[in-house]
Amino acid sequence: MNDEHKDWLAYMDAQSRDKQMLFMNGIARKLNRPRVTEPPSHPFRGAPDFWQTFQWTEQERIEKFTDNFRSAGGHVLRLADMAEVRQFITDKSAEMSVKYVIRQNEPELDALNLESALPEVKILVWNSNSEQHWKACAAEADFGVVVADYAAAYTGSITVLSSKDKGRTVSLLPTVLIAILPVERIKTRLGEILADFDDAGGAHLPAGIHFISGPSRSADIENDLTIGVHGPGVVYALIVG
Amino acid sequence: MSGTDISASSTVKERADLALNNEFLRQAVRFTTERLRSGKMTAAEQHGNWEEWRERGRQIRLHTIAHLDYYLNLFADNARANGVHVHFADTAQEAVNISLQIAERKKAHTVVKSKSMVTEELHLNHALESIGVEAVETDLGEYIIQLAGETPSHIIIPAIHKNRYQIAELLSVEAGETLPADTAILAGFVRRKLRQKFLEADIGMTGCNFAVAETGSMVLFENEGNARMVTTVPKTQITLMGMERIVPTWADLEVMATLLPRSATGQKLTVYMSGITGPRREEDADGPEEMHIIIVDNGRSLQLGDPEFQELLNCIRCGACLNACPVYRHIGGHAYGGTYSGPIGAVLTPALNKNVAEWDDIANASSLCGACYEACPVKIPLHEMLIYLRRRKVENGHGSKLESLGMKGFAAVMAKSGRFNGMLKLGKWGQKLVVRDGGIKVKLGPLKGWNSYRIAPSLPKKSFRDGWRTLEEEIRHGLKDMDPAVKSRMEAAIKKRAEGASHSHER
Ligand code: SF4
Q1: Which pTM was predicted?
Q2: C-beta of residue B87 within 8 angstroms of C-beta of residue A16
Q3: I want to staple B319 with a disulfide (CB 3.0 to 4.6 A). Which of A135, B156, B201, B351 is the partner?
């Protein structure tokens, strides 16, 4: 970033801070009261009480997640262990004549050793060197392989968090998304996952938190459902354990 | 400042006449709204305890708006701490200026945009083009109407008014070859075309569904993945956010995430829900390097402290009131002429513009049946607000009393076309509902004439029943699953009237 631009940002920032005070004072004035500067008590925080205690058993969570994810057009498989995951990815690659795979840089995925299972396929590990243009790599990949951080059974959603080793584009740009979902990460409700973000606080949140509930879709042309408009058109959730 | 596209010479009535001439539009709107509306009803029913969730959603919105200075301030501080450049804009012009300055600084050639009603409100595409920056809408429907040079006609399905042949024609021009009118092929073309744009673009521009005050995060709901593209691929991200988009915590977001997708499309959750907290971290290999959030007032704060309209700021832009509204369902979005259409647009547009006189005819294009309120996931009493608008018009000395009282504008629109005669009667019926609702009657102080206003004595009683079956069914159905509180209010009012025996309306 050049200095001139930095200076401009600093100038805009100073302006914004002044404006912020006027803006907030204006709001308070319109609300006919002094500024509120202490946290107000928030008696209606979050979901209704009856919901906060709602829980499914593990078996129910698996079933509901599967039903919901499928009815949104996603695929779900229940696999015993990572060896079966490896087999699945190998078979699918052959079936779909895959040329490029991009995966997150995680130990579970290292352990799959896809390189030896798929010698013909180019396998890229996210952000494993600084020379690559990683976004472009993700864009040309046939498969993106990720490990989900959470899932919510009630809505049929998986959650992926970004980091140095976990690219946001890996779950977005490839044609097919394969998300490995350790069974113990499936929660009943969305709120159980969101609570962790409140607990973490802004300074400890990743830049990108993404809930994914099936393949990309649109009904914008005559209400005709189209799959894979911008994001992956085929999405697998592989429940492991 | 102008938040709208309306030209002074074109009234709702004229625009509706145009809309009514377009058979496809009429059918498409009916079909789509029906699909979304029944999807919503099924989703709400499946989820269960819908009234409790609505009430919770309303309480969270009320609480947040009542303490907006605290929460917005907290959000701004936290977003800044995350590395976001936060800006405040009182007017549309200020928001546009800031956006253009960023684009100029970045020497941007192309901006990719995901769907955002705020940027529509600001006419930002036009402004960007005026400085030579290409602004590309990337939501499939938005892309289509951008190619057509039109504005969205529905909050959720912006290209609701275009058929596949028209779309194929538009896209064929872009493709430089004739594309068949096949949805999958057309969408495939757009995917390839826009992929290129995402990868080339200098700036990604988004709206904001919610902003979490406690962590300074912004949250987007979408189905296509284009909002994720826009917030991940370009080096600079600009988010335009209405000042009222705040929720205090992620826990509160659960309630909004429960209400919004179900109310909009009947989904349990949109395909993507993304929470973005600041630009990419130093060591990340994707995400924007520079992130701006522009917080926009543009008339919103005019509602603060206004007991009749403050609740407008609770709106979560789900579009359920459009789908529920018999008038919207038959005249379509463009007839409203502003950025926001349907019942919410009828109230929000004049409220944001603070211009009752110019816009009151939109308030007349409503049957006041209350279906919008019933559908609203945060219980905004839009039908009452429509009455306040009419009253304000009278107080400001605009228009005749008769107009303010009734369905004149609406009836005239509908009477124009023979097949819509039934609507006239429906309109009368809609009024009656309002009169029946004791709660509204009491609040109608300045409009004393209202509760003694006789309902079309010249119309035979059975005329409503044989009027327009679909509409009748719609509204009756709507009444069945009405909020018990409203229903009991209505029933009480009807009972009271029966006791008084001075009115004898059909039920
Ligand atoms: S007014 Fe209510 S129903 Fe209409 S768009 Fe806003 S939140 Fe949805």
Answers
A1: 0.84
A2: yes
A3: B156
